[in-house]
């Protein structure tokens, strides 16, 4: 009887709506090179059931336009359906870049700013004379300022009435997905900047289109339908529930105990192969994913991963948590797939990665594009970094006398980029993120050698008001761990612990060698930071590889900043905004720090 009921469920015909979307909802374009318009979007000339409400587009002079209720019309440059974001530009041509960046008001629309950076706009009756002393201030904005009204913008997290001159007042707070420091904010450009906004859609539609079919909205049943391309009448509800008829059949099956028998069989099989610790880990991960249903990264199955990686054909590297494979999405975008083969039993590193970088986006932080959690298999899908990690450019030289693989100017740019990424983790997010594993191996380089911070498996989230972090055990990599993580006698654990790791990495970038080399036979001659400090404090040359005189200044600046960052007392270490100010300032303005360690007088293998 039970098998008969199962067969009835399988053979029930799919739902078919009264409307036939194949006749009206085919993909459209406003011009041959314009973005494809399909579900959840529609042209205003198409029926309502072709899209969700609020996703109407229209054509004007071969251009695609979107109307935002609170802001007006915008040109649509690109629609990325896989990642669910749309690139727009302001229809109103303006020479004021920052005005366009701050203009979109997404209230009363179905869109949102995916990675909002909250900014405060304020007006001063005089120019701020020493603007470098204020954190993250852009201005005055020449195209918005007039007479004795000078307009400035700064990070809302840093803004307070007390830190600004008395002749300044707050105007308004805005959210933007663009880093104003990287934009031409103080002046104007001839072209309006592109703005990325995201949208949320039904998970059922992701499943449908992932199977090669397409979605439409049934206005009668108020639900998303999935239709086969090759069969216009084959449409059905692609959600987690069954149709009413199926639910009746299932209720009958439950009444006779069929589903109970099925659940019992599944439970016995489950207990036969899964240990108690694995069950707890899976429940923890599932609970986390249930609480974070609105995560931007897409979820993939293990079979999807095999397609993306070509059955894990090309291994890029191997780390403490497993292997990384090269792959690509169906649209050709290259990705790196990190399989957590040796993950902790409680799934902590997987949860940390998804919870931290799954919700943030910054130019110097690697982007999480997707993840997989299927049984004991867990994986993370990142954007592909063609130049790999910084580590291979610092420590992989076969001959130590060979020329540096990275120029001093490029090393300085990499150092500044990493500092901006760490600064964003500490200051730019709703919650402060402590990385606890800043090191060259976790710094990835794109095709232009721009750095991105990766591997958030040891990260910890805390509120910005929380200055002291409670830790039960030290975490990180030997050689980069701040001393307070080993003993509270050195001070409290805080965001300054990341500053210490950054400083140790900075000194390794200067010397192109590990600060602590455990393979060296003479252990009294292995501490490179002390060698650098002794040279600089005595006014001696570092005798590193220089091409231009400017290289010497860069090396000395990086070394001095690194020595400030590795002060054993966390209070004496600079914050990341101060680190950036030192890196971007003049060498002459830097002071030598106190001796950051206590050890024997050594001078190690260098001239």
Question: Please, could you describe this protein's structure?
Answer:
The chain is of the alpha+beta class and 607 residues long. It has 3 domains: 53-199, no CATH class; 280-383, Phosphorylase Kinase, domain 1, CATH 3.30.200; 391-589, Transferase(Phosphotransferase) domain 1 (Transferase(Phosphotransferase), domain 1). Helix content is 27%, strand content 20%. It contains 14 helices and 24 strands. It has helices at 2-11, 97-102, 203-210, 244-255, 258-273, 276-291, 302-309, 348-357, 391-395, 408-428, 496-511, 528-537, 549-565, 576-584, and strands at 42-43, 56-60, 63-68, 72-80, 85-90, 111-112, 117-124, 137-138, 150-155, 168-176, 195-199, 214-218, 223-228, 231-237, 298-299, 315-319, 322-328, 334-339, 368-374, 377-383, 432-434, 443-445, 451-453, 460-462. The protein has a 7-stranded mixed sheet with strand order 1-2-3-4-5-11-6, with no helix packed on it. A hairpin with a 4-residue loop joins strand 4 (72-80) and strand 5. Helix 11 (496-511) runs antiparallel to helix 13 (549-565). The chain is globular, with a radius of gyration of 28 Å.
């Amino acid at each position: 009887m039970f098998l008969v009921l199962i067969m009835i469920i399988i053979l029930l015909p799919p739902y078919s709506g009264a409307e036939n979307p194949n006749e009206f909802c085919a993909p459209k374009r406003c011009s041959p090179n314009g973005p494809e318009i399909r579900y959840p979007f529609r042209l205003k000339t198409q029926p309502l059931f072709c899209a969700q409400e609020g996703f109407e587009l229209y054509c004007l002079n071969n251009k695609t336009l979107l109307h935002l209720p609170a802001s007006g019309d915008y040109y649509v440059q690109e629609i990325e359906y896989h990642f669910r974001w749309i690139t727009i530009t302001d229809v109103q041509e303006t020479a004021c870049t920052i005005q366009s960046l701050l203009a979109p008001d997404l209230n009363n629309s179905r869109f949102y700013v995916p990675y909002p950076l909250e900014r405060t706009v304020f007006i001063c009756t005089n120019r701020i004379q020493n603007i470098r002393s204020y954190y993250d201030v852009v201005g005055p904005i020449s195209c918005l300022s007039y007479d004795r009204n000078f307009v400035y913008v700064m990070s809302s997290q840093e803004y307070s009435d007390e830190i600004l001159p008395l002749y300044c007042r707050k105007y308004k707070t805005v959210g933007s997905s663009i880093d104003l420091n990287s934009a031409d904010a103080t002046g104007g450009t001839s072209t309006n900047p592109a703005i990325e906004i995201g949208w949320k859609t039904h998970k059922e539609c992701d499943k449908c289109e992932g199977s090669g079919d397409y979605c439409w909205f049934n206005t009668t049943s108020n639900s998303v339908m999935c239709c086969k391309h090759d069969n216009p009448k084959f449409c059905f509800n692609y959600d987690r529930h069954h149709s009413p008829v199926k639910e009746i059949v299932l209720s009958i099956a439950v009444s006779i105990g069929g589903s109970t028998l099925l659940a019992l069989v599944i439970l016995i099989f489950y207990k036969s192969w899964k240990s108690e610790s694995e069950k707890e880990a899976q429940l923890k991960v599932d609970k986390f994913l249930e609480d974070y249903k609105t995560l931007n990264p897409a979820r993939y199955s293990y079979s999807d991963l095999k397609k993306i990686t070509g059955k894990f054909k090309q291994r890029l590297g191997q780390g403490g948590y497993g292997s990384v494979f090269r792959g690509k999405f169906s649209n050709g975008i290259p990705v790196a797939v990190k399989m957590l083969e040796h993950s902790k039993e409680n799934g902590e590193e997987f949860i940390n990665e998804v919870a931290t970088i799954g919700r943030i986006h910054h130019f110097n932080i690697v982007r999480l594009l997707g993840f997989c959690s299927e049984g004991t298999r867990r994986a993370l899908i990142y954007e592909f970094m063609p130049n790999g990690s910084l580590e291979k450019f610092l420590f992989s030289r076969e001959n130590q006398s060979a020329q540096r693989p990275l120029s001093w100017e490029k090393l300085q740019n990499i150092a500044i980029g990493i500092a901006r990424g760490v600064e964003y983790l500490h200051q730019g997010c709703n919650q402060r993120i402590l990385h606890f594993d800043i090191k060259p191996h976790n710094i990835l380089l794109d095709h232009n050698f721009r750095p991105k911070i990766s591997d958030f498996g040891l990260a910890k989230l805390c509120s910005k008001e929380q200055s002291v972090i409670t830790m039960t055990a030290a975490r990180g990599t030997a050689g980069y761990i701040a001393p307070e993580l080993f003993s509270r006698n050195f001070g409290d654990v805080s965001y300054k612990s990341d500053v210490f790791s950054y400083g140790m990495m900075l000194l390794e970038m200067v010397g192109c060698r590990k600060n602590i080399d455990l393979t060296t036979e003479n252990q009294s001659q292995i501490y490179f930071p002390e060698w650098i400090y002794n040279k600089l404090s005595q006014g001696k040359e570092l005798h590193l590889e220089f091409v231009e005189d400017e290289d010497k200044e860069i090396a000395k600046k990086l070394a001095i900043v690194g020595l400030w960052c590795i002060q054993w007392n966390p209070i004496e270490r600079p914050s990341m905004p101060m680190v950036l100010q030192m890196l971007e300032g003049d060498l002459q303005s830097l002071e030598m720090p106190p001796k950051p360690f206590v050890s024997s007088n050594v001078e190690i293998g260098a001239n």
